[in-house]
Automatic annotation (TrEMBL), chain A:
It comes from Thalassococcus halodurans. Belongs to the AccA family. GO terms for biological process: fatty acid biosynthetic process; malonyl-CoA biosynthetic process. The keyword Nucleotide-binding applies. It is an enzyme of class 2 (transferase). It comes from the Bacteria. This is Acetyl-coenzyme A carboxylase carboxyl transferase subunit alpha.
Automatic annotation (TrEMBL), chain B:
Keywords: ATP-binding, Cytoplasm, Fatty acid biosynthesis, Fatty acid metabolism, Lipid biosynthesis, Lipid metabolism, Metal-binding, Nucleotide-binding, Transferase, Zinc, Zinc-finger. Belongs to the AccD/PCCB family. Residues 25-294 form the CoA carboxyltransferase N-terminal domain. It comes from the Bacteria. This is Acetyl-coenzyme A carboxylase carboxyl transferase subunit beta. Zn(2+) binds at residues 29, 32, 48, 51. The keyword Transferase applies. Its EC number is 2.1.3.15. Acetyl-CoA carboxylase is a heterohexamer composed of biotin carboxyl carrier protein (AccB), biotin carboxylase (AccC) and two subunits each of ACCase subunit alpha (AccA) and ACCase subunit beta (AccD). Residues 288-308 are annotated as: Disordered. It holds the Pfam family Carboxyl_trans. It comes from Thalassococcus halodurans.
Amino acid sequence: MHYLDFEKPLAEIEGKAEELRAMAKVNEEMDIEAEAKALDAKADGLLKDLYSKLTPWRKCQVARHPERPHCQDYIEALFTEYTPLAGDRNFADDLAVMGGLARFNDRPVVVIGHEKGKDTNSRLKHNFGMARPEGYRKAIRLMDMADRFRLPVVTLVDTPGAYPGKGAEERGQSEAIARCTEKCLQIGVPSVTVITGEGGSGGAVAFATANRVAMLEHSVYSVISPEGCASILWKDAEKMREAAEALRLTAQDLHKLAVIDRIIKEPMGGAHRDSESTIAAVGATIAAMLADLEDKKPADLIKQRRKKFLDMGSRGLAA
Amino acid sequence: MNWISNYVRPRINSIFSRRETPDNLWTKCDECGTMLFHRELSDNLNVCSNCNHHMGITPRARFQALFDGGVFVEVDVPEPVADPLHFRDQKKYPDRMKSAQKNTGEKEAMLVATGEIGRTPIVAAAQDFSFMGGSMGMYVGNAIIAAAEEAVKLGRPLVLFSAAGGARMQEGILSLMQMPRTTVAIQMLREANLPYIVVLTHPTTGGVTASYAMLGDIQIAEPNALICFAGPRVIEQTIREKLPEGFQRAEYLLDHGMLDRVTDRREMRKELITVLRMLMDMPPPVWGDLPAPTDTPELPAPDAAGEK
Ligand SMILES: [Zn+2]
């Protein structure tokens, strides 16, 4: 288990309980169960306490937790017959973006998402979920196909942002993002998005311009990272706590602002403590959002999506 | 069509921009260090006469030089909710707004207007880098939507001059939402078959580049303008190497196929007129210093405005 800095006291208690149980395994004479159970209860209480009042910055940390379920986990558990489709037909296949055909509750769909990877090797392979222009262009191609064959589009967003690299800029990062957002707005099929971890800036919105957008309880969605914002506005990257607060990047604030439609509850202690139930809850929400859009005509889907974004922000926090 | 109806008066506009600045001030070119007489500089559209460096220009000065006779009508932009997030960093957002308004004399970071250029009716929008770095928030989004709606209503092309450091951080996620919002605006133009020309000026970066500023039918940039999604410093920190000379500048983007043209600001008006009249299937413009047409009494005659 990877512990976040604010989880240190929790790590100590859980560590002690684990130690006791390990000792008891070796020495059968020892009766530690009562003590271990007391520690468990203490840990439970502390976990509840910590997670019932996560600050925006702590939510950023939870959203970036390395053991949080990622795109691949969701696709494997929630979709069948997943058939990855690769490449932008122009330059490369961007492994920061997964996507292809799959069935969701037996219905064929196109699924697209950012994959961050789960260990050093796979993180490098997936470029930490930071897409290059090819990733957006692959997504455009897949959305086009979905539109032609009348398949709903499901996107799973989890990215620190678009990759700030030399080649990415030379190959038109901005144009690729702009066109991807544009494509999201053009397709005449239902589109639903779940922000599962980090919704980082333009790299996220290019996938999240959908008819319905949901966020996991402790995920974040922001125009800039708190560190980036702090270094610009506070001239000090260490002011990320203040920046996270000011940016209103939590699912709860974004729901108040009517930027997202639904919040998906996470298990106590965050998605990384119970991937299985998190994934199931995400699946149920995708099903519900798709059901909302069933039987809608292509023109109405496009109209609804446009109006949703045109109206956005008109009431501020009072919404 | 009457030849006079597409007559172009190229020189009158300098009269109007001249009024804005005092006569006896000098500006130092931040590129070559030459001291430039203010009036001379504004007559030259803020382009250094020594090294051709393009300095910043306000939307108002640009429009005065762009539109026939310097005459344009501002398009109303719906007012968004002020300070939608109750944002504060070291300063409160409303205080930052107030000081930007005081410093620029403008309400916000974008100006939208209708008028004619070389007798070609257009809608134009220009972003004001001097107003909080031209940053894109709800107002800029509303301005672009208003510009597109006006263009569709009047059946005119839209010319947009971009200049921005990126999103308005003080509006958080709502500034990010201007990417899809402005993209919807551009789709309205496309569906109405109206040309949308983007003129990218220094600097155009971040979310602005990744939305309306990259979706033009024709993409023109001013010389040496920095145009990018991620800024050079961020990239250097990420890849830990020095970037090549001219990286992310207009000419570099042109070489990499990201732009149609790089055009000197002093030639921009002529180029826009030429291109727009072709796209709108209008007869070619008549260039040169000809007498004012008599059928447009609302425009001051060149004589009345005075020649140099
Ligand atoms: Zn100079």
